[in-house]
Specification:
two-stranded antiparallel ribbon; four-stranded mixed β-sheet; disordered N terminus; about 210 residues; 6 strands; disordered C terminus
Length: about 210
């Protein structure tokens, strides 16, 4: 698939794209990202891959007996990133058998589906579906880690404050007496937001 952002050659001309169960997935393929001969660090490649929550690492293995050893040699700590929390290590041997290993940061909650024992797949289509579900769930689980939870909370707080400032100005002008009477009881916007969320959750729970 031809990449949309090609005007400045920041993401390359082509990328890999797929849809699974309504999820649109775009892959940052290292060999398809722009390569600079003058930049030994390949910052443009690192910028995209390092900002992805999930990384897929392919290991070249010819001998099926060496596949498990090759997976065990992978060390996720050698890749420094504040965002990448899940690594999926994949290898395929001469018999077209796929082996999968999954590494995740200790802060990431457990996520399924569980790997079979041994984690070897002989059906390519079955492996594709299993891998996509595993990685989608891994990314969703990562959002529950302290790093992303704090970022999400700050973002939501800013959005709520912007909405409050934008839409409450006119309401305040028409309700001056009311707000003055209860000015000492007004709560911060973030507290109003969380109480509303709790209310909605409670209402949905009763509806179910």
């Amino acid at each position: 698939m031809r990449s949309r952002n090609i005007e400045c050659d920041m993401t390359g001309k082509y990328s890999m794209y797929t849809i699974y169960e309504g999820h649109e997935i775009m892959f940052h393929v290292s060999t398809l990202l722009p390569y600079s001969r003058d930049n030994r660090q390949q910052v443009e490649r690192k910028r995209h891959i390092g900002n992805d929550i999930v990384n897929i690492v392919f290991v070249d293995v010819d001998d099926p007996t060496q596949s498990e050893t090759a997976h065990s040699l992978f060390n996720p700590t050698c890749i420094k990133s504040q965002f990448t929390h899940v690594f999926a290590v994949v290898s395929v041997d001469r018999e077209n058998q796929y082996r999968l290993s999954v590494f995740s940061d200790e802060a990431v909650p457990l996520f399924g589906p569980s790997l079979p024992c041994p984690p070897v797949f002989r059906d390519a289509q079955l492996f594709r579906e299993f891998l996509l579900v595993k990685l989608i769930n891994g990314e969703k689980a990562t959002f529950e880690t302290p790093t992303f939870a704090r970022k999400r909370e700050r973002t939501l707080d800013m959005l709520i404050k912007d909405l409050y400032s934008e839409h409450m100005t006119d309401a305040r002008m028409g309700c001056v007496l009311f707000t003055c009477s209860f000015q000492h009881k007004l709560w911060p916007v973030s507290q109003i937001y969380w109480i509303e969320i709790i209310y909605l959750l409670g209402r949905n729970k009763q509806a179910n």
